[in-house]
Sequence to fold (295 residues):
Amino acid sequence: MSTKVVWLAVPLFLALCAAPCLALSPDELALVAPSAERGSAASQVLLAVAYLNGDGGLKREPAKAAYWFEQAAIQGNAYAEKKLGDLYEQGLGVPANPKLAFDWRLKAANRGIVEAQLKVGKMYQEGAGVAKNIDQAIYWFHRAATEGNGEAQYLLGRLYHYGGDVEVDRAAARSWFEKAALQGYEAAIHILNLIESIGYQLDEGWHNRQPGLKTLAEDGDLEAEYQLAQRYERGIGGFRKDAATALDWYRRAAAGGHLMAMRALAQIYSEGLDGVERSPTAAAEWAARAKAISH
Fold:
């Protein structure tokens, strides 16, 4: 087997395994392009990545990248399905289409692509591109989490910790937080530190520790700021309902980079909240900031 053939087999194998990571040189591109034209799904993925990144002397052309990802996806290449879903969500190279983003990601998720499983779970949780379905969100988070995805583990922990859409299960929440923290997932480490600093036990909620929560928030703890905002928004846990104060704490947390606080602000400005006027501009700004840090 020649050196070129050996080299080509490596990235093709990586593409089939959903992880192309090598930037193509012009000479390498000359080998890949004909193979893509002849129908090799792996080569189509590599060519798509080259167009997406501007490798091998090519100009960055997202539309051509989308075309080649679609050719590979039609043949069942899981990585291409996942990437095509991402492009439809971003509106990059194709018109933005949340429904198609979900459909392609679901195909990839069913083929075992962990990142797609995570994103499908998020879309079910948020009702983006598909009807909101918390049971399905949990199913896909669990599939990704059992494969070791730290973010999925963290999101499961949040669902079981805060309840609302699911029954609160403090033991399960802490278990998933710990799994995510062991992988270095910073948000999970942060929330575990918060739990410990508040003195939280498995059989009691944070609402029994109001002074500690408020003190942490005033000290600049982002998660505590977000939690305090929720309590003021809803008037729970011993805090009076106060939309203005809730908004202030959401803003503080969001300004520090707290994703859920950004999403809360986007919803509040979109729908209004007890005297807080609707602001489509502010809603769009916070939604865009949340989207930018969630991918």
Q: What stands out?
A: The chain has three domains: 1-111, 114-204, 218-295. The chain has 16 helices and no strands. Residues 3-16 form the longest helix (14 residues). The domain at 1-111 is CATH 1.25.40.10 (Serine Threonine Protein Phosphatase 5, Tetratricopeptide repeat).
